[in-house]
């Protein structure tokens, strides 16, 4: 798998350090609030694991599976809920956990839904932010690293469902997705 990677952007050590740092920030900001860490499947899996082990406080973890189709030229991204929550979010503080924010469609949809359902607060923690990809306005409150517009994989991020298990974030070689 390493052969398919052009360049490593963030090493395991850098990612783990960043996750621990973000966890400590969340610990302070959410003291006494018993927040729900809401991971969006499947990309958030490694990050939610790293985050939660550094949060020394009562938290709940939940998951949703949401898929977005970025086809076409319009700015109306279609987002489908594939697996919904089976708990109430009413009056709860929600921290959405993401591997990456790109167009912003996925989060826009999920945030609106959670607010509609009466969440007390909704914020986003993402390991990677790709602001150049943004189509709808979306500013995650907690960001690990800001990245340029490149095809990145690893640490939850896939190409055609593979590479999620790489313990680092890297740029995929063009020849891999051109063939
Ligand atoms: C990817 C990524 C984010 C989302 C970001 O998920 O994990 O959830 O896209 O893109 P956006 O800001 O343009 O909406 P994807 O829908 O590919 O599912 P996955 O997590 O299972 O890979
Ligand atoms: Mn995802
Ligand atoms: Mg994906």
TrEMBL record:
Entry EC no(s): 2.4.2.8
GO molecular function: glycosyltransferase activity
Reaction it catalyzes: IMP + diphosphate = hypoxanthine + 5-phospho-alpha-D-ribose 1-diphosphate; GMP + diphosphate = guanine + 5-phospho-alpha-D-ribose 1-diphosphate
Pfam families named among the record's database cross-references: Pribosyltran
Superkingdom, taxonomy of origin: Bacteria
UniProt entry tagged with the keyword Glycosyltransferase: yes
Functional pathway: Purine metabolism; GMP biosynthesis via salvage pathway; GMP from guanine: step 1/1; Purine metabolism; IMP biosynthesis via salvage pathway; IMP from hypoxanthine: step 1/1
Keywords: Cytoplasm, Glycosyltransferase, Magnesium, Metal-binding, Nucleotide-binding, Purine salvage, Transferase
InterPro entries registered for this protein in UniProt: HGPRT (IPR050408), Hxn_phspho_trans (IPR005904), PRTase-like (IPR029057), PRTase_dom (IPR000836)
Family of the protein in this entry: Belongs to the purine/pyrimidine phosphoribosyltransferase family.
Protein name per the record: Hypoxanthine phosphoribosyltransferase
Species, as recorded: Turicibacter faecis
UniProt gene name: hpt
């Amino acid at each position: 798998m390493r052969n398919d990677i052009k360049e490593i952007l963030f090493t395991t050590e850098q990612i783990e350090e960043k996750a621990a740092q973000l966890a400590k920030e969340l610990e302070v900001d959410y003291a006494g609030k018993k927040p729900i860490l809401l991971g969006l499947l499947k990309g958030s899996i490694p990050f939610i694991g790293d985050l939660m082990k550094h949060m020394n406080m009562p938290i709940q973890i939940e998951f949703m599976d949401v898929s977005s189709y970025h086809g076409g030229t319009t700015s109306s991204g279609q987002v489908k809920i594939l697996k919904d929550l089976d708990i109430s979010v009413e009056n709860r503080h929600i921290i959405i956990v993401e591997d990456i924010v790109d167009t912003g469609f996925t989060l826009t949809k999920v945030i609106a839904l959670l607010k509609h359902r009466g969440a007390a607060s909704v914020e986003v923690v993402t390991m990677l932010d790709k602001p150049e990809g943004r189509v709808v306005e979306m500013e995650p409150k907690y960001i690990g690293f800001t990245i340029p517009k490149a095809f990145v994989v690893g640490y939850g991020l896939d190409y055609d469902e593979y590479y999620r298990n790489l313990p680092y974030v890297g740029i995929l070689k063009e020849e891999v997705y051109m063939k």
